[in-house]
């Protein structure tokens, strides 16, 4: 009896594994089709000044709607990296950003936009040249585009990274270190690499209830500013988090407290309402995450 019970478990387990493999195969097939059919959207999350509710720019975030269901970039970006699609998908992203930036410009709005760059792309020695080429072909001003790179991407090939970062700076881009504090960060990296911005990871912001985390965040902001970097806090959801960041003289924040990532049209609407002075901060709290 025990034996047949064990066998049944193995069957269940095997079936689950098979289901997982099939689901993954289907997802891979759909990513293929989505890349080919350009079925991705770009949404923009406002990046806002801490000292006053003024939108300074946005982070471009990829969105994939698969049969009505939104798949998180946390799932499909790693798959695109494995499947060697990351280059293609970044070109799609930059196409969309360049188109949106042109549309906003026609309305007199020129926000700074930052995009996320994968470690794989960052280890390509001609990355900055490819980027310059893509932007020139789409008449996108370089100064308006920022790049977000993780510490892990920089540290996998530090020499190469230093070179690429220097080129990107010379090309007029801002360069942020993304998810700061989650990798094997060394404070020395901040000094060693030509960065412009430090983005404090969301996990530190959601942890601000703890005294130790408050100490870490406060010290990180002070240190970054001492090194001449600007600081963005990620994932700000509560008014008291924003109050703390204001006390620490953090420069910018993004998070559901102000707004989640929204469509290009909705982002333009926010910019236009801000310009006409009709954007009240309480109102943005009502936006759904
Ligand atoms: P990230 O660069 O750290 O982006 C911030 C993530 O935090 C976004 O998730 C954003 O929607 C989410 N977020 C922002 N504010 C809040 C908040 O107040 N609370 C909470 N709980 N979450 C908040 P998203 O869009 O799911 O992106 C996840 C990650 O996927 C990004 O993390 C980035 O690493 C990657 N990613 C997104 N788009 C691209 C892309 O175009 N290229 C590459 N290489 N990676 C991308
Ligand atoms: Mg980012
Ligand atoms: Mg981040
Ligand atoms: Mg993050």
Automatic annotation (TrEMBL):
Positions of the EAL domain: 24-275
Entry superkingdom: Bacteria
Name of the molecule in the record: Putative signaling protein
Residue range from the parent sequence: 678 to 966 of 969
């Amino acid at each position: 009896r025990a034996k047949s019970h064990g066998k049944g478990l193995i069957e269940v387990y095997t079936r689950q594994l098979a289901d997982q493999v099939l689901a993954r195969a289907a997802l891979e097939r759909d990513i293929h089709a989505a890349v080919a059919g350009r079925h991705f959207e770009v949404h923009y999350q406002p990046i806002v000044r801490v000292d006053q509710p003024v939108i300074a720019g946005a982070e471009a975030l990829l969105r994939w709607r698969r049969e009505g269901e939104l798949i998180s970039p946390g799932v499909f970006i790693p798959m695109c990296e494995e499947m060697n699609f990351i280059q293609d998908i970044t070109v799609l992203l930059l196409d969309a950003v360049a188109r949106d930036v042109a549309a906003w410009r026609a309305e007199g709005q020129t926000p700074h936009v930052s995009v996320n760059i994968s470690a794989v792309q960052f280890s390509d020695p001609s990355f900055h040249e490819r980027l310059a080429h893509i932007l020139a072909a789409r008449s996108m001003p370089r100064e308006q585009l920022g790049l977000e790179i993780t510490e892990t991407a920089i540290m996998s090939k530090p020499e190469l990274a230093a070179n690429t970062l220097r080129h990107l700076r010379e090309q007029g881009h801002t360069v942020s270190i993304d998810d700061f504090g989650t990798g094997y960060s060394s404070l020395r990296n901040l000094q060693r690499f030509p960065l412009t911005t430090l983005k404090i990871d969301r996990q530190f912001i959601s942890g601000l209830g703890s005294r130790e985390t408050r100490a870490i965040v406060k010290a990180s902001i002070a240190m970054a500013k001492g090194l001449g970097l600007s600081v963005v806090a990620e994932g700000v959801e509560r008014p008291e988090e924003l109050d703390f960041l204001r006390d620490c003289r953090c420069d910018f924040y993004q998070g559901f407290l102000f707004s989640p990532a929204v469509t290009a049209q909705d982002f333009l609407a926010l910019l236009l309402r801000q310009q006409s002075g009709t954007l009240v901060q309480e109102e943005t709290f009502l936006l759904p995450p």
